[in-house]
Amino acid sequence: MAVEAASPETVGPGRPEPVLLTEPVDGVPPVVDTPAALEAAAEALAAGTGPVAVDTERASGYRYSQRAYLVQLRREGSGTVLVDPIALRGALDPLVPALTETEWVLHAASQDLPCLAELDLRPARLFDTELAGRLAGFDRVSLGALVERLLGYRLEKGHSAADWSRRPLPEDWLVYAALDVELLVALRDEMHAELQQQGKLEWAFEEFEAVRTAEPAPPRAEPWRRTSGIHKVRSPRQLAAVRALWQARDDFARERDIAPGRVLPDSSIVLAAQTNPKSEGDLVAMPVFGGRQQRRRASMWLQALRAARRLGNDELPAASTPHDGPPPTNRWADRDPAAAARLSAARAALNQIAEEHSLPVENLLLPDLVRRSCWTPPEDLGVPAVAELLRSKGAREWQIDLTAEAFAKALATTPDEES
Fold this sequence. Notes:
single chain; Nucleotidyltransferase, domain 5; DNA polymerase, domain 1; 49% helix
């Protein structure tokens, strides 16, 4: 059943009152949690027409993994399908041929594609409604905001932050999950028309393909340095304690599939590193560590702290984060005035282009690409060479067409010209 834009009553001068959507149009389907039900769902989806709306629910904040605990699918002629990959032990093979040649519609696809790939579900074509909203220049691009703006419906506040690993899943959670795909294809059609009207449809297709084919980000070299509050830790020895506690927590959390923050808060890691307790009594006298769960883990935390204390000076971590990029931009004027001039000129030029085309400037060129290029510009500042530089760093053709000439000019800026 196709979903059409609502016809809400007008409240005030020209302001439509959105229609609250509380139930899926076809009701909430039973959760697919057996091989037989999965085969039937795959057949239904294969018999449908048009794009398929796709969403997932994870248990971020509750579980260590980012696996999907529910997969939602909806297609014209097929209805909504709610699949439990946990009950099916991740074996969703029947869905692969049913979805292979179909355009997938997701909202913020980069968040869902990794956990779908873990289930061997990968789109051949993609339409990302959030990214489409950004390219269209909309100031609010959440699913709820776009549905309200373009379709005239209001979605109820949902359960996105819930523990989706819970079983059985409550009925109101399933309603929320089904509604997340209820309007996605209709929203896709409206966004398609909007982008076409703005002359940005081909840009969007390039962006969707970049998201679809993006390689997974490499692991961070020192992920423990992202511990919240680590800026309070001054000495290398204390940093070693943070590292040891973080690694002990990470090993424990991974083994039990628990979100690390639920094992031990970052603030407690920082406090223990600063306080350096020598005994179990000292440790459990500290906030959080005195709780029942932490008392049982006290020996693990003490062992980590002792290991950090035994390290030689040459084994301690560096005081600052090692990186291969340029320094913070607020130091450029003193360290390299020419680079600062290039960056100022580049930002001004890119902001002007973004404003002319109603685009977020970060969607025009990645800020990190701009900074690195301005700090260490190429020897050849001709437009073709700069265009090839942008291409080699992952810029799409539409971005290159819009920015290469202005960016080349900015990279040739001198401090005297900038002032």
